[in-house]
Amino acid sequence: MLKIAVLVSGGGSNLQSIIDDINSGALNCTIEYVISDRIGAYGIERAKKAGIKTIELDRKELKSDLSNTILGLVKGKVDLIVLAGYLSIISGDILKEFKNRIINIHPSLIPSFCGQGMYGIKVHEAVLEYGCKIAGCTVHLVDEGTDTGAIIIQKVVEVKEDDSSEVLQKRVLEQEHKALPEAISYFADEKITIEGRQIKIKK
Ligand code: GAR
């Protein structure tokens, strides 16, 4: 069975969607570790409640050693690393060791509203400011860039005229909670073929 590590920085609602789908039998994998890059992230509490092994790291203390520390913890222990609201940049050897084996969820339709500094509520504020009529989320592979890896899955929502950024965020988040477990299932069920930027999913 596919073994995964889930990395979080905050509330962990995306982590919760993975836990729920595993528990319901919809997703066929095991979470070996939940790792946070900051002390006190609520995602860690969710993992503890689900009986999952947790590791809390301090990004301020580890600085440029953060990715290497994570590599040391997961190397040889997991098949896939899932960034579920993880806000530090992944860099260094972990990108080679886990090539095509790190995925991230981003709350926009990439390549719009992504890249450095574009995360969380800021994304939804920018979408509204621009006057977009649609928004959505993207699950993609992680490479050397920020939000530049090949796209695995995207889900679209409507932007309504009276939306606040919080209301839009909630609508997108509902789709994230479907998209991320679905993307993991492509790896778990060996349905995914990766050829450069072109990702194909067996029906
Ligand atoms: C999610 O909306 C996720 O897409 C976003 O942070 C939120 C975390 O929520 N990630 C990024 O913006 C990454 N660039 P959660 O902690 O409740 O899963």
From TrEMBL:
For N(1)-(5-phospho-beta-D-ribosyl)glycinamide, which residues are the binding ones? G12, S13, N14
Q: What class of enzyme is it?
A: transferase
The name of this protein is Phosphoribosylglycinamide formyltransferase
Named in its record, the pathway it takes part in is: Purine metabolism; IMP biosynthesis via de novo pathway; N(2)-formyl-N(1)-(5-phospho-D-ribosyl)glycinamide from N(1)-(5-phospho-D-ribosyl)glycinamide (10-formyl THF route): step 1/1
Example GO molecular function: phosphoribosylglycinamide formyltransferase activity
**EC numbers:** 2.1.2.2
Binding-site list for (6R)-10-formyltetrahydrofolate: K63, N104
- Example of a GO cellular component annotation carried by this entry: cytosol
> Which residues belong to any copy of the Formyl transferase N-terminal domain?
3-184
What family is it from? Belongs to the GART family.
State the protein's purpose.
Catalyzes the transfer of a formyl group from 10-formyltetrahydrofolate to 5-phospho-ribosyl-glycinamide (GAR), producing 5-phospho-ribosyl-N-formylglycinamide (FGAR) and tetrahydrofolate.
Which residues bear the site annotation Raises pKa of active site His? D147
Q: Which NCBIfam families match?
A: PurN (TIGR00639)
Q: Which reaction does it catalyse?
A: N(1)-(5-phospho-beta-D-ribosyl)glycinamide + (6R)-10-formyltetrahydrofolate = N(2)-formyl-N(1)-(5-phospho-beta-D-ribosyl)glycinamide + (6S)-5,6,7,8-tetrahydrofolate + H(+)
Which species does this protein come from? Clostridium collagenovorans DSM 3089
Catalytic positions are H106
For this protein's source organism, the top of the classification is: Bacteria, Bacillati, Bacillota, Clostridia, Eubacteriales
According to its UniProt entry, the protein's GO biological process terms are: 'de novo' IMP biosynthetic process
Under the heading InterPro entries, the entry gives: Formyl_transf_N (IPR002376), Formyl_transf_N_sf (IPR036477), GART (IPR004607)
Q: Which UniProt keywords apply?
A: Purine biosynthesis, Transferase
Q: Which residues form a coiled coil?
A: none
Q: Which domain of life is it from?
A: Bacteria
